């Protein structure tokens, strides 16, 4: 008899796939997946989550409907850049380690 194919490890099933970028307007950064349109962050990279989010929210956006492949790619890059800048600005900056808080200025 034929043996069933071994299942993929859970980590492989949850790995972000590049095709989801243009298909659902999601990108991966720092171990999370972010919607390029609204900025919603998903901790678990699952196609079903991305598809559901896109169909219920972003798929209704007039500016994303009926784009050809080149226009879709350009729009994704534009939205991704905006979200990456937003993410970068939300991260706290590292405090300077060369200052001493105990010193007082006279």
Write the layout of secondary structure elements.
Layout: H1 10-13, H2 19-24, E1 26-29, E2 32-35, E3 41-42, H3 47-56, H4 69-90
Task: Report on this structure.
This protein is mainly alpha-helical. The protein has one domain (12-86). It is built from four helices and three strands. It has helices at 10-13, 19-24, 47-56, 69-90, and strands spanning 26-29, 32-35, 41-42. It has a three-stranded antiparallel β-sheet. The longest helix has 22 residues, at 69-90.
Mean pLDDT reading = 81
Helix content: 25-40%
Distance between the termini: 87 Å
Give the number of helices. Answer: 4
What profile does the largest beta sheet have?
3 strands, antiparallel
What is the global morphology? globular
Poorly predicted regions: 95-99
Strand order of the largest sheet: 1-2-3
- Helix/strand order, N-terminal first: HHEEEHH
Helix-strand makeup class: mainly alpha
Count the E strands: 3
Number of domains: 1
**Hey, roughly how much beta strand do the residues contain?**
5-15%
Radius of gyration, rounded?
Answer: 20 Å
How is this structure best summarized?
The chain is mostly helical. It contains four helices and three strands, in the order ααβββαα.
Supply the key terms.
single chain, 106 residues, mainly alpha, 3 strands
């Amino acid at each position: 008899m034929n043996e069933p194919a071994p299942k993929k490890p859970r980590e492989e099933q949850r790995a972000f796939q590049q095709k989801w970028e243009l298909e659902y307007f999601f990108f991966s950064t720092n171990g999370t997946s972010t919607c390029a349109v609204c900025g919603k962050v998903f901790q678990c990279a699952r196609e079903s989550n991305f598809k559901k989010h896109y169909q219920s929210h972003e798929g209704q956006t007039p500016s994303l409907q009926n784009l050809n492949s080149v226009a879709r790619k350009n729009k994704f890059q534009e939205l991704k850049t905006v979200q990456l800048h937003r993410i970068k600005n939300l991260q706290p900056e590292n405090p300077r380690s060369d200052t001493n808080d105990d010193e007082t200025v006279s």
